[in-house]
């Protein structure tokens, strides 16, 4: 640690700290445009100038000079840095004057107005006037995709977007062309960006040069009602802030959580917004003569009650989809128990995960933050870039630090980092286990594509063997990690929402003639054969609604308060932002009313009572933002599971990143992104 004086305040900071970091440690505010904590240092905006006593007789860029480079004061006194001296004040005024020479006076029509760094810093540190009267330089706008709008005349060349795409996203989509006055930020050929994290550049841009295109001219920042919540479009559980106006969700932004998503979110998380109000189910429907017709709640309940009365418990089943909250899954489980129906399942894709193997058998045990502690990585049947782009960025972050070997068994893909390709199927994994030697801390990531096969349990056992033999399980380290794609999956497995003794799993329930009555809680990724009477509780007119005999309109994740457990086992709370449309109701309330209709009323009348009952049975769900770790011994039991793997190549769990759930499939923005993505894949194949 090194002692340093900042505006007369003495602080102890590591020698590798920059002066900017040291100043912030001392409580001094240092303005900046180009500097960002998660990007490399560019040092090109010069807004963070400070005065160093005993240093050069000129302002110093605090982001580009480290504490170890300072000379001590007289008689060994600590080095001194000033952030408010006349020299610094004059220097900052000069920098802002230069920044504003060509910056247009767009504030009244700029979407960044009200949350613009340039606006704020010009007010706080600027001189309030300019000596320049020349015509402003104009730059042509660029097309860089359907998610980010460009107003490049406003660009101040901070290069945050360039560094983000090169360092975090790993696609190098953006760069600079030209020199001096002719320098421009672009995608070179003005093509659409290809990263699944491209929307983050609009968060990083300190001016209004890069803006979210779908929200263009929709609202001003001070009009928003801001609500902290959790993303459910994948299983990472990214922390988000949902901005609404009235009864409409306008935009979704990331919240900082270094343990989960840092400050990034995927483009699907960010721009699925328009899908929340398109193709919505806002009233009950009943199928008559092969066609669905609008009905009252009473008519819908009467149809269900009549069918339930004529159906034996053994011929009744329940399915849970990918977006369901823990509370409604628990309510559905209680209802099935009271009906005596053993056929319940949350694994609509057929993955061979089972709570009977222990909680560690289906968690991302290494944790997301733990990726940075790993010494090597083995990916089995997964494409993290498509299944969880933000987690993939964390893997890339570790890879950039060096001394991190990545090996892949499965489909070849551009993961934004180099890897050794071992082969396409389980036989390649078996050879790797036999031929390799242990490393320090091995991280084994098992994807859903490897587990949704008939031999999924054998692949899971092989992955556990790899973890055990090659350094994946040791004192203080459990690197066996399952990467889920469904936000509801871990919570449902925690509740034991799998078939009871003699019960059918999801794949068998969906077969013709297997059951007579199926309660479908938002399961839209499975095709149910004709024959069964299907009661669909969901939000959109998607696959599940098309197959349903009775539709009960539910609430989307922004319209209810609910618990979700992410892929690492972290319990998180999603908050209600707006109310459901029309006659739609929260899912737990629908199930409570339904239980009374079928003659098995559940023992709660409010969400608070339901949560009290839930927590009493599963205490770990009461610890928000906490991970209840699995037992390392479970991996040993899993490794000994007797099963034989086939030789077929692993097939990716996600074929189209942008269309993985009903909300995304209802989104016009996601449809445009999907068309671009599929077009690129077709072009690459040709």
TrEMBL record:
Domain (2Fe-2S ferredoxin-type): residue spans on this chain: 1-85
One annotated GO molecular function is: 2 iron, 2 sulfur cluster binding
Query: What SUPFAM superfamilies does its record include?
Result: 2Fe-2S ferredoxin-like, 4Fe-4S ferredoxins, Formate dehydrogenase/DMSO reductase, domains 1-3
Q: Which organism is it from?
A: Methylocystis echinoides
Which stretches make up the 4Fe-4S His(Cys)3-ligated-type domain?
A: 87-126
Protein name, please? NADH-quinone oxidoreductase
The record lists the catalysed reaction(s) as: a quinone + NADH + 5 H(+)(in) = a quinol + NAD(+) + 4 H(+)(out)
Q: Tell me which Pfam families the record gives.
A: Fer2_4, Fer4_NDSU1, Fer4_Nqo3, Molybdopterin, NADH-G_4Fe-4S_3, NADH_dhqG_C
Q: Which GO terms describe its biological process?
A: ATP synthesis coupled electron transport
Kindly indicate whether the keyword Transcription belongs to this entry. no
